[in-house]
């Protein structure tokens, strides 16, 4: 397999950038910034998902039933950044103070993690929405460039206004190519975030009910 010439790839990219006009640069910057935020959000999501899945898939409850609460919680602590682990830890830390204290602590943790989960999502959505708008701006700019050349030189030589048409088409294409995948990834992530919140919260409520239903801890 022949090696890829990095210089030729860079030259091709710069050629496309110059042919697309000044609008193409902010489209690329906006798109890569949106994808950087998206990847960071996915990393944070999978970090929280670990502990939650441990609670949802039955592993925590099987350990709780067979080997006791301390062992189950110790295994769960391996996912110490997980959503379910954070809520379950509140149950353990505040159970001696009663169900009201436990619920207040859980609500505070739920609110804090929800804010962290939704952070940057609006910015990602904005990047996805602005990319085609910038592409449209590039289209208008390219057409203006084309008509200026026609005004100066007429239709005698189409090469003179080909740059304007190329600018219009390239910016439109770049805006759409940046927007569509980013919006699809955003919608998928938003749905997964909502699901993990629901699952972690329902499992935490189940654990809270188990703790106080068993009556193992005296309420002060």
Number of strands: 0
Instruction: Please state the overall shape, judged from the principal axes of the Cα atoms.
Output: rod-shaped
- Please mark out the parts with pLDDT under 50 across 5 or more consecutive residues, or reply none: 53-57
- Structural class computed from helices and strand pairing: mainly alpha
In helices, the fraction of residues equals over 70%
Mean pLDDT: 78
Question: Please, how many helices?
Answer: 8
The arrangement of helices and strands along the chain is HHHHHHHH
What is the C-alpha radius of gyration, as a whole number of Å?
Answer: 27 Å
Describe, in plain words, how this protein is organized in 3D.
By secondary structure, the chain is an all-alpha fold. The protein has a domain at 23-128 and 179-213. It contains 8 helices and no strands. Helix 2 (24-56) runs antiparallel to helix 7, helix 3 (59-67) packs antiparallel against helix 4 and helix 5 (83-94) runs parallel beside helix 8.
Question: What secondary-structure arrangement, pairings included, does this model have?
Answer:
Layout: H1 6-19, H2 24-56, H3 59-67, H4 69-76, H5 83-94, H6 99-118, H7 121-153, H8 159-214
Helix pairs in contact: 2-5, 2-7, 2-8, 3-4, 5-6, 5-8, 6-8, 7-8
């Amino acid at each position: 397999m022949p090696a890829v010439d990095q210089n030729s790839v860079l030259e091709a990219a710069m050629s496309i950038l110059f042919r697309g006009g000044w609008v193409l640069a902010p489209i690329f910057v906006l798109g890569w910034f949106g994808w950087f935020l998206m990847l960071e959000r996915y990393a944070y999501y999978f970090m929280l998902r670990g502990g939650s899945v441990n609670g949802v898939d039955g592993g925590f409850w099987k350990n709780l039933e067979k080997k006791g609460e301390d062992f189950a919680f110790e295994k769960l602590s391996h996912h110490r950044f997980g959503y379910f682990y954070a809520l379950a830890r509140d149950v353990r830390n505040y159970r001696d103070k009663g169900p009201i204290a436990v619920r207040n602590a859980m609500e505070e943790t739920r609110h804090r993690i929800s804010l962290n989960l939704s952070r940057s999502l609006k910015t990602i959505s904005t990047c996805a929405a602005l990319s085609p708008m910038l592409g449209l701006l590039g289209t208008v700019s390219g057409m203006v460039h084309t008509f200026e050349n026609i005004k100066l030189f007429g239709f005698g030589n189409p090469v003179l206004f080909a740059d304007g048409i190329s600018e219009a088409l390239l910016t439109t294409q770049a805006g759409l190519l940046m927007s569509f995948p980013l919006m699809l990834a955003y919608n998928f992530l938003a749905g997964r975030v909502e699901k993990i919140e629901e699952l972690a919260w329902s499992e935490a409520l189940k654990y809270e009910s188990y703790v106080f239903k068993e009556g193992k801890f005296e309420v002060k």
